[in-house]
Structure formats: structure tokens, C-alpha cells
Amino acid sequence: MRAALVLALALVAPALAQNAPAVGDAAPDFTARTLDGGTIRLADLRGRHVLLEFWATWCAPCVASAPRLAALYDEHPRDRFEIVGVALDSPPAVRAFVAEHGHGWPQVVEPNRAGRPVTDLYGVRGYPTSVLVGPGGTVVYRGEGVGSLEAVLVEALSDRADTEGL
Q1: Cα(27)–Cα(138) distance, rounded to whole angstroms?
Q2: Cα-Cα end-to-end distance for the chain
Q3: Residue 49 phi, psi (nearest 5)
């Protein structure tokens, strides 16, 4: 039974990755319920850069990047930049983590592998995964971790980038 599950995941995972939007592709729209009970729709955030941050509380690199994400969030105005967290975790675990780390951005919680539509839509296979969507709705960055994202974000939010449509 376990071998069949591993084989099924091995066959499905590459298909998800192949369908993942790449840099230059249109970012797939979604509507999802947030941790606070609201609803968020990617299309409603058009006109600003949106960082989709796929993470989990049990992911050591995700936890390590939390302070850097919080700093990025605080450095940029909401009318130009927003973060949407997509957590593969339980609502209580995400709620506690967000409270402890002061993450004020919207969080979508996808608590189990059977019900993670946003994660699947973006073909996420590892954590953390960052997808930066430009103001026009195209993917301008996709990667794991926050490292190179910071440089891309600074460039994307510069006045020059705004005139070039990044």
C-alpha cells in the first residue's frame, strides 16, 4: 500500500511541476478563504506586486525566513506590495505562528494534501516557495527561499521598474 502511494506521488508531482506557472506566464487567479475568515482573490490585488509565499510551520527554512519576510512587508507600502501566505498546516498552528512572528499579511491555510487548491494551482512541490506576481498579473519571480527574492523585489519596486512594467 505504501509503495503504491509513493509511486502515485512520484507520477503526479512532475505533472504538477510541469503545470507550474513560470516567469513570464500569467499568474493563475484564485479565490480562497483566509485564516481570519475573509476571502482573498488574486485578481483583486492587480496593480501591485504580490508575493505568494508557500510555507509551513514545520519547515525549518520557512521559519528561518520569517523575519526577512516581515521586514520586506514592513519596508514597502500596501498600495505597491502585498504578501499572501499559503500555509500547508493546521489553522491553530498557523494562527500561533503568525501571532508570534507578527505577520500581518493575509494567510490562506491548506491543512491537508487532499485539499490544497492554491498550492496545486501553482505546482508547488517544496517549501518555502516564493512566487512574485507583477502589477499586470504575470509571474516575475519564482524560487525557493527568500535569498534572491529580496534583490528582485527591490528592483521590481524601484521607480524605474514601475515605468518599465515590472
Answers
A1: 5
A2: 48
A3: -80, 135
C-alpha cell, 98: 503568525
- Per-position pLDDT tens, the chain of length 166: 433 333 333 333 333 455 799 999 999 999 999 999 999 999 999 999 999 999 999 999 999 999 989 999 999 999 999 999 999 999 999 999 999 998 999 999 998 767 789 999 999 999 999 999 999 999 999 997 666 777 788 788 875 454 444 4
Q: Check if the beta carbon of residue 131 is closer than 8 Å to that of residue 148.
A: no
165: helix, strand or coil: coil
Domains and their CATH numbers in the chain: 2-164 (3.40.30.10)
Report how far residue 74's alpha carbon sits from residue 101's, in angstroms, rounded to the nearest whole number.
Answer: 13
Whether residue 139 contacts residue 23, with contact meaning beta carbons closer than 8 Å, is answered with: yes
Question: What residue spans of 19-139 are helical by DSSP H?
Answer: 60-75, 91-101, 117-121
